[in-house]
Design brief:
Elements lengths: L1 E3 L5 H10 L3 H10 L3 E3 L4 H10 L6 E5 L5 E5 L6 H16 L3 H11 L5 H14 L4 H9 L9 H9 L7 H6 L3 H8 L4 H22 L2 H12 L5 H18 L3 H15 L5 H14 L11 H12 L13 H19 L3 H17 L3 H13 L3 H17 L5 H11 L9
Parallel strand pairs: 1-2
Antiparallel strand pairs: 1-3, 3-4
Helix pairs in contact: 2-4, 4-16, 5-6, 6-7, 8-10, 11-12, 11-13, 12-13, 13-14, 14-17, 17-18, 17-19, 18-19, 19-20, 20-21
Length: 419
């Protein structure tokens, strides 16, 4: 069992650590696993990510002795049962291995190159969450000539979320009418998920190569999937500021962030969002708002949705206001960690304040408190950091990081953290 720590969510790491202190989970892990924990700065992480595609999110990998991935969990939970459930799934797969997958890998490694073999192997790797972009291109080179007219095959290629302008991407669009027919036969949720994965992988390629021109093309491609001009501009600008952050282009990142958050988020009316949420909630049958008996599974589904690794979970209402809170907090926290410039700090402070107005969240309270402290409003900073501590403890989540910060605030220390 390999636990990959989150790079930017200490609370997620604390939640996981706290869950693993449970004696039931601890005994289950010790009885069945060799456990290790790694962080993203280690050389081991780069190797693991290249094979198992953790995409910079927190992850727990359950591997066979030969490296075969049994189960991957890309979320965190306060419930130890969520992790027990993941371990049990891994053990079930170990007891009932996918022999077809192993045979396909064995055949491939022995030099066999047939379209059907590679097609099945791509499908198996996709299901297992393993990296398979190069394998998909190799499969495509062996595809029958009439495959380009097969809507099912085009859908299969799209489901692999190919990198923008790759051979697979170009093949999908060879016949634009065929692609549109295949694309719109899939559900909107599936299309959105594919688009998000394509953009994430393509943006990562742009960052790795430090290729701004390619990043602009990716941003334009993604923006082109939206019909409303303001939404298209927003997604374009979001891709670009993420690119600037990735390549550590501080000047363009800061300027782009101010424009993005001020134009697209600070202009949103809190009352209008709450009104929309009220209507959405009233339209959902009351019976679907009752969580199922297995609360651990529900929490796991919600955490996966919030972290961007899962669909909207059924049986629970998630307000739009929460999305605005998370996005504003992301901008505020990034500015806080990027610069001490008073102009940008003031902007981040305003964003964090608005984030707290949309919905209550201890991470947002913490961001706002730190920005208040940095700008000299130390009394109010302590009040908000105390709120973060109490709110976190009320949810039965460890609050040690927030407690450490508020103690430093009370002692008048400066700096209170590494940023």
């Amino acid at each position: 069992m390999i636990v990959i720590e989150s790079a930017d969510c200490k609370q997620c790491n604390e939640m996981t650590t706290q869950s693993f202190t449970n004696p039931v989970l601890s005994r289950s892990v010790n009885s069945n696993c060799i456990a290790m924990k790694i962080n993203r700065s280690s050389k081991e992480y780069a190797m693991i990510d290249s094979i198992y595609s953790t995409n910079n999110s927190m992850a727990i990998l359950f591997l066979e002795y030969d490296g075969t991935l049994l189960q991957k969990f890309t979320a965190s939970s306060t419930s130890y049962m969520a992790y027990v459930d993941q371990l049990n799934k891994a053990l079930t797969k170990k007891e009932h291995p996918d022999t077809e997958f192993k045979e396909l890998v064995k055949d491939y490694n022995s030099g066999k190159r047939e379209f059907e073999l590679l097609y099945k192997l791509v499908k198996k790797k996709a299901e297992a969450g393993l990296e398979h972009d190069l394998l998909t291109e190799e499969m495509l080179s062996l595809a029958p000539q009439d495959s380009a007219t097969s809507l099912t095959f085009i859908q299969f290629l799209a489901e692999q979320a190919p990198v923008f302008d790759s051979k697979v991407y170009q093949y999908m669009y060879k016949n634009s009418q065929n692609f549109r027919d295949a694309w719109f036969m899939m559900s909107q949720q599936k299309r959105t998920n594919i688009n998000n994965r394509m953009v994430s992988k393509s943006r990562a390629k742009a960052v790795k190569e430090k290729n701004r021109i390619y990043a602009e093309r990716v941003a334009n491609m993604f923006a082109g999937t939206y019909t409303e001009k303001i939404v298209a501009r927003k997604v374009h600008d979001r891709v670009m500021i993420d690119y600037f952050r990735g390549v550590k282009d501080t000047a363009n990142f800061l300027v782009g962030s101010v424009r993005y958050y001020d134009q697209y988020l600070m202009t949103i009316s809190l009352d209008s969002v709450q009104h929309i949420d009220s209507i959405r909630k009233s339209e959902i049958p009351q019976r679907t708002l009752t969580p199922p008996p297995d609360a651990a599974r529900m929490e796991t589904a919600v955490m996966a949705y919030v972290s961007g690794t899962g669909p909207v979970p059924t049986g629970i209402f998630i307000p739009i206001a929460q999305n605005y809170t998370n996005e504003l907090n992301s901008g505020s926290w990034t500015i806080y960690t990027f610069t001490h410039d008073p102009v940008y700090t003031a902007k981040a402070l305003a964003w964090a304040k608005r984030a707290n107005e949309f919905s209550e969240n201890p991470a947002v309270m913490d961001t706002y408190a730190r920005l208040l402290y940095r700008t000299g409003n130390k009394k109010e900073a302590i009040v908000w950091e105390d709120k973060a501590v109490q709110y976190t403890k009320a949810r039965k989540i460890p609050a040690s990081e927030y407690e450490e910060i508020v103690n430093k605030m009370r002692a008048g220390k400066d700096p209170i953290d590494e940023y």
